[in-house]
Amino acid sequence: MLFSPGWRAPVRQGQVLAVFSVGLLLGGTLTATVLWLLSGLAAPLPGAVRTGLLIAVAALGVAREAGWVRIPMPQNARQIPQEVLRARIRRGALQFGFELGTGVRTFVSASAPYVVALGLLLAHQGPVPTILTGTGFGVGRAATAAARYASRHDEWDDRRVTRMPFLTNAIGVTVLIALVLLSVRGT
Predict the structure, then answer these.
(1) What pLDDT tens digit does each residue of the chain (187 aa) get?
(2) Taking burial as the number of CB atoms within 10 A of a residue's CB, which of 59, 103, 157, 177 is the most buried?
(3) What is the largest CA-CA distance in the chain?
(4) pTM of the predicted model, to two decimals?
């Protein structure tokens, strides 16, 4: 568990969550900035080609979420060493949050973040919407941690697991629609 063991710990759980959340936001923002810079490589492609690729990537993501196709997602199987969080809890929480916020520290089982990342590369939007999208990724991850912290009950995880298939499919369809609208607007 990320948080300190309770009221006797030298650092309160809320403080750790706040620092962790800042790291998530910074990591998501950095990744989006890099995606925006790299999106210039897609700019020379004709708009129709980018639109077609966007729709194909989004449809593939929806098909993966629905279980129609099996596509392995990239992952970094390394775990953060326990010493990072034990020795310097605030610094460790910031580092761990930053790495999770970049999206490259851990396995992301849902297709939507990958579809959005590829969509941002292909859509070649301006820096503000692209960076806000990355910050939104960090906010989403922070919201999950905050909801878990606020619930203070283990059954929260059980409720989350039962709702996850619906949520991932709904998010996949939403991402598909958003990318199609973005691509139509951008051409």
Answers:
(1) 455 444 455 567 788 889 999 999 999 999 999 999 999 999 899 988 988 898 898 888 888 888 899 988 877 766 667 776 777 788 888 988 898 888 877 777 778 888 888 888 988 888 998 999 889 888 888 888 887 777 776 665 666 666 666 666 676 677 667 766 766 665 5
(2) 103
(3) 60
(4) 0.75
Phi, psi (deg, nearest 5) at residue 123: -70, -25
At 63, list the tokens: 């098909």
Q: Taking the domains of the chain in order of start, what are their residue ranges?
A: 13-186
The neighbour count for residue 81, using CB atoms within 10 Å, is: 10
**CA nearest to 13, candidates 22, 2, 26, 24:** 2
3's tokens: 């948080």
Dist CA 128 CA 145 (whole Å): 26
- In the three-class reduction of DSSP (H, G, I as helix; E, B as strand; rest coil), residue 48 is classed as helix
Rounded distance between C-alpha atoms, residue 38 and residue 120, angstroms: 9
Distance of alpha carbon 37 from alpha carbon 41, whole angstroms? 8
Compute CA 172 distance to the chain's CA centroid, rounded to the nearest angstrom.
Answer: 13
Q: Distance between terminal CA atoms of the chain?
A: 46
Residues 150, 148: Cα–Cα separation, whole Å: 6
